[in-house]
Amino acid sequence: MPRTKTLIAVVAAAVAVTLPASLAVADSAQAWPYSHHMTCSVDSSNPPEGGTVTIHCTGAHPDVTLAIFLHPKNYVLGTATTDHSGDATTTVSLPAGETGHHILLIHQPHGNSVSIPIDIGGVAMAGFSVKDSGGDSPTATNGAPVVGLGALGLALLLGGGFTFLAGRRRRNPA
């Protein structure tokens, strides 16, 4: 019986030390606060083939680089750097030979993105402005609260190990 009591004491000590430490580390590693919801607009949602588009964004994180892509072919069109108030304006050139419906994707670090549909060489659409919908957008965002899942996993792991060790029978030489 002393061995079982020692095992219980070791497991209890491990839980007492590991669980608060893991919660403290996970709590201090918070994801970037999503208080900046970027809004972007374009000067023309019907640019000519091989033409240019001027993009203006407001409400982004200050002093970050925005990446600008053309989907669905994943062309990298360029970047823009926001000022201290989170505003940026840039003009990008569209690839020659691309026509039809496309999406301009303006991505800021930490997962926030804005998608603007454009028709290259197509029918003009009324002035179009899109506001980032934060966590409800189809674009993946990071910073999910996983502390609870990590604590549950640790508790299940320790509980399973304790059950395994407690269920072993001692072999006594006869």
Explain what you see.
This protein is α+β, with helices and mostly antiparallel strands. The chain has a domain at 39-136: Sandwich (Immunoglobulin-like), CATH 2.60.40. It is 28% helix and 29% strand. The protein is built from two helices and eight strands. The chain has helices spanning 2-28, 147-167; strands at 39-42, 52-58, 65-71, 75-81, 88-93, 100-107, 113-120, 129-131. The strands form two sheets. The chain has a four-stranded antiparallel sheet, with no helix packed on it. Strands 4-3-6-7 form a four-stranded antiparallel sheet, with no helix packed on it. Helix 1 (2-28) packs antiparallel against helix 2 (147-167).
Secondary structure layout plus pairing:
Blueprint: H1 2-28, E1 39-42, E2 52-58, E3 65-71, E4 75-81, E5 88-93, E6 100-107, E7 113-120, E8 129-131, H2 147-167
Antiparallel strand pairs: 1-2, 1-8, 2-5, 3-4, 3-6, 6-7
Helix pairs in contact: 1-2
Note the main attributes of this structure.
single chain, 174 residues, alpha+beta, Immunoglobulin-like, four-stranded antiparallel sheet, elongated
Tell the overall outline: elongated
Q: Give the strand content.
A: 25-35%
Elements, N to C (H/E): HEEEEEEEEH
What is the CATH architecture assignment of the domain at 39-136?
A: Sandwich
